[in-house]
Design a protein that fits this description.
By secondary structure, the protein is an all-alpha fold. It has helices spanning 2-23, 50-56, 71-90, 94-116, 121-139, 141-169, 176-189, 191-216, 224-237, 241-250. Helix 4 (94-116) packs antiparallel against helix 9. The longest helix has 29 residues, at 141-169. The protein folds into two domains: 1-92, no CATH class; 98-251, no CATH class. Helices cover 73% and strands 0% of the residues. The structure holds zinc ion (ZN). Residues 36, 38-39, 41, 61, 63-64, 66 line the site of zinc ion.
Length: 251
C-alpha cells in the first residue's frame, strides 16, 4: 500500500516535471493545460497525468487522431518507479528525500537537456537549496559547510576539464550547465566519489556519443542526464570514498 502511494506521488510529480522541463526554458506558463501538438486540442484538467491521458484517449488525440507522444508517459512511469526504489532502500528518511530530489532533478534535466540542450539555472538553484537544507538536518551545520566546499572544489575540477576540452577541441566541449551541476555532486558525494563520478559518467556517455556520431553525424549529446544517472546510482548504492580507495588499492 505504501509503495503504491509513493509510486502515485512519483507519477504525479513526474507529470509536473514534464511541464517544467518543456516549458521553463521557453518561459511558458507552468499552469496552462496541455494541448495536442498538432491541432491545439485542449485536454481536460484531470488529464495533467500523461499516463491517464494516454489510457483515456487510447494513445491518440480525440480531435485529430494523431498518436500521443509516449516520452512523457515513460517519464512519469520511471519517476514513480525510482521513487519506489528510493523508498525501498532508505524508508521514510532524510536520505529518501535527498534521493527523490535527485530523481526529480534528473527528470526535469532529462527533458530540457534533450529538448533544448539547456539546464536551467532556476532548476539548479532550487535543488541545491533543497539539498543543503536537508543536509543541515541530517549531518549538521559544520559537516554541511564541508560538503558545500567539496561542491565548490568539484565545480572547479569540471571547469578546468571544460577549459582543457575547449582548448583541445578548439570549440565548446562541455555545456555551462554540466559544469555548474558538479556543485551538486560535490555537495552530495564528497570530493573523492565526486571525481570518480565524472569518470564513470564519461565512460557511460562515450559509447552513446560514438553511436550518435555514427548515426547522426553530430557529436553534440547532452551530458547532463548521464551525469545525473551516475549521481543517482552512486547515491542509491551508498558508495563512499573508502570503497573507492580500497578498489584502487586492489588494482
Ligand atoms: Zn490533435
Amino acid at each position: 500500500m505504501h509503495l503504491f502511494i509513493i509510486f502515485l506521488l512519483g507519477t504525479l510529480l513526474g507529470s509536473f516535471y514534464n511541464r517544467v522541463g518543456k516549458r521553463l526554458p521557453n518561459e511558458e506558463n507552468l499552469l496552462k493545460r496541455d494541448c495536442c501538438n498538432s491541432c491545439e486540442y485542449k485536454y481536460k484538467w484531470y488529464e495533467f497525468s500523461h499516463i491517464l491521458q494516454y489510457f483515456l484517449r487510447s494513445g491518440r488525440c480525440p480531435n485529430c487522431r494523431k498518436r500521443l507522444d509516449i516520452v512523457p508517459v515513460l517519464n512519469e512511469f520511471f519517476t514513480g518507479m525510482l521513487f519506489v526504489i528510493s523508498y525501498s532502500i532508505f524508508g521514510l528518511s532524510n536520505e529518501f528525500l535527498i534521493s527523490i530530489g535527485i530523481v526529480s532533478m534528473l527528470m526535469i534535466i532529462l527533458i530540457s537537456d534533450f529538448s533544448y540542450m539547456i539546464i536551467s539555472d532556476e532548476v539548479l538553484i532550487f535543488f541545491n537549496t533543497y539539498f543543503i537544507i536537508l543536509l543541515v538536518f541530517t549531518i549538521g551545520v559544520s559537516q554541511t559547510i564541508i560538503q558545500i566546499l567539496s561542491g565548490v572544489f568539484l565545480f572547479g575540477v569540471m571547469y578546468f576539464i571544460m577549459l582543457l576540452g575547449n582548448f583541445l577541441l578548439k570549440g565548446e566541449s562541455l555545456g555551462g550547465g554540466d559544469v555548474k551541476m558538479m556543485f551538486t555532486f560535490g555537495l552530495l558525494l564528497g570530493p573523492i566519489v565526486g571525481v570518480f563520478s565524472i569518470f564513470l559518467s564519461s565512460l557511460i556517455a562515450l559509447p552513446i556519443s560514438l553511436i550518435n556520431m555514427y548515426i547522426n553525424k553530430n557529436h553534440a549529446i547532452p551530458f547532463g542526464p548521464f551525469l545525473l544517472v551516475t549521481l543517482l546510482f552512486l547515491f542509491l548504492i551508498g558508495i563512499d570514498s573508502k570503497d573507492i580507495i580500497e578498489a584502487f588499492q586492489m588494482i
